[in-house]
Amino acid sequence: MRRFRYFRDELFLAAATAYGLNRWLIKPVVASPFLRGQFNDLLLIPAALPLILWVQRQTRLRAADEVPSWSEIGLHFGVWSIICEWIGPRWLHHGTADPWDVLAYAVGGLLAGLWWHRRAGTYSGSKVEP
Asked: Would the pTM count as exceeding 0.85?
């Protein structure tokens, strides 16, 4: 199996670039509701999870350099959904709770997981023969 490259992963680099371009260049001048609302939410998992997993690997909380497992993707989806869409808006009075954001996190996580597992030659943790 190919080793996961964390912040050198192609999907991470594309997602982080798209996030930055949208946040600082496109969103301020384009009135698209999707670009202003859910586009960056789609990029949450592919842009943030590799860095989080790299930190976990450096601190020995992650045992191997494998592609993100479906359980890791699901765990981070759940944690970030709770923090960004429930705790933040209710207790920190930051942002608004939006179920469309949660759907965007889920879709982004699903697409990222499919990408990572396809590129690594795995699907649901089992080896796929070429």
From this structure: yes
